[in-house]
Amino acid sequence: MEIFNYIFGISTALAQNVNAGEIASETEGQLTQLVGYIIGQIPLWITAFIVLIITFVMARIAKSAVENKMAAEGFEEENKEVAILASRSANAGVLIVGITIALKIAGIDLTAIIAAGAFGVGFALQDIIMNFIAGVMILSSRHYSIGDSIKVGGIVGKIVEIQTRATILRAFDGTKIIVPNADLFKNKVVSLTSNPFRRIKLEMGVNYGEDLRKTMEVVMKAVESTEGVLAQPKPAMRYTGFGQYSVNFGVKAWVESRGGWIKIRHRMLLNINKALHEAGISIPYPIQTLHVSQEEVEEEKIVMESGGESTPESSQQQLEPAPVIVEPPAPPKPISTEDVNAQTWLKKSEPQPEPQPEPAPVEQPQQVPSPEIPPQPEQKPIAGITPVQPAAAPEQPQQNPEESQQ
After folding, report:
1. Is 66 inside a domain boundary?
2. How high is the pLDDT of residue 319?
């Protein structure tokens, strides 16, 4: 760190209040010392750079050597986490030692670097260090390993790789999921395959009229004959209760966790359905029961027999008028003197109709008396001769008063 002392010495000399000659001589001396220091440090810096290159190469060699050693002893297949942790520790150890030696050769004081590193860890490198430590804890605890299926925070997948910063999961649909190691370390993790065996369960139901003991025998034979179902522990079936449409029961069976339990459950469901169908046992579907009284049935029968016409009682009920609500008339509004005067003024201002002439009296026609006909003497009838009746006098037409007036 002497190079910084030379640089700060030159700036201090320039800041002091001395004459120009002294400044020039002092500055020249400082520059000469700086150039001499740089020339003297170049071999050391080259050596430090070479040490850094050798350090990175040795770190890779150490990591590969540890991995090969673990694989030769069988740790690669049984304990992948131990092999990963050992190889990464060897790599990190060689890097730390090599970088420290290179800095010492270059003449750099590590005190300032350590202080700056601690400050960076407190702020910028906090998440990185936390994930790194969490990854080391995950590998060392071995609660779950590579190849296990886990569930964390609603995410379900198979562990593909545990890195320094994160763990790589592959979902059942092939999606790649990256979960930080800190989240795995702090949150609840459900391991689905850490246990070599897994229990699967099916919920079903049969009609109320079926023989429950026969149903149990048929279902158990179908489950035991399913490929992939373990004989020990034995499968089990229990009736769970009376449902709305059926008698419900549950079937439980044990399978291997890494043996494709989803496919085994699928085959078991198909076998149970086929066995129940062959035995004549039906699985119910939603049913609704409608209760009708005898009176309603008789009324409906009468309506159907009468050709769809309604009964007198129903007609009377339909034709019965609804009650009419009559509201009382509103009381008359009192008429004030101003209203009376206004009505009188309006009547006077209205135009009066012209008087019509009276029609002339219509003279009634005088009735002319009809001439009297003298009575005829009574004639005696003669034998063999029919008497002739006298002709009636013609009726005079009545004249219309208007015609007579004309």
Report:
1. yes
2. 45
Handedness of CA 84, 89, 92, 93 (dihedral sign): negative
pLDDT band at 363 (very low <50, low <70, confident <90, very high): low
Residues 230 and 168 grouped into a single domain: no
Share of the chain above pLDDT 70, in %: 61
Could you tell me if 63 and 20 lie in one domain? yes
Torsion sign over Cα 55, 56, 58, 62: positive
Q: Quote the domain boundaries for residue 79.
A: 2-108
354 lies in some domain: no
Q: How far is CA 380 from CA 198, 258, 374, 377, 387, in A?
A: 150, 153, 18, 9, 9
Residue 390 lies in a domain: no
Q: What is the pLDDT of residue 270?
A: 92
10 has a pLDDT exceeding 70:
no
Which residue is associated with the tokens 């009920």?
A: 317
CATH of the domain at 158: 2.30.30.60
Q: Would the pLDDT of 318 be above 50?
A: no
At 406, is the pLDDT very low, low, confident or very high (cuts 50, 70, 90)?
Answer: very low
Q: What are phi and psi of 297, to 5 degrees?
A: -65, -45
Average pLDDT over residues 153-171: 85
Tell me which of 191, 225, 251 is where a domain ends: 191
Q: Are residues 253 and 274 in the same domain?
A: yes
Q: What is the mean pLDDT of the chain?
A: 73
Residues 6+ apart with CB under 8 A from 400: none
Question: Could you tell me if 172 and 210 lie in one domain?
Answer: no
Q: Are residues 184 and 202 in the same domain?
A: no
Give the tens place of pLDDT for each residue, 182-224.
Answer: 888 888 888 887 778 888 888 888 888 888 889 899 999 999 8
Three-state DSSP at 236 gives strand
Q: Does residue 202 fall inside a structural domain? A: yes
- Angstrom CA distances, 312 to 178, 305, 316, 317, stand at 80, 14, 6, 8
Amino acid at the residue 140: S
- Domains: count for the chain: 3
Angle between helices 20-72 and 80-105 (to 10 degrees): 160
Residues 12 and 57 in one domain: yes
The pairing of strands 247-256 and 197-206 is antiparallel
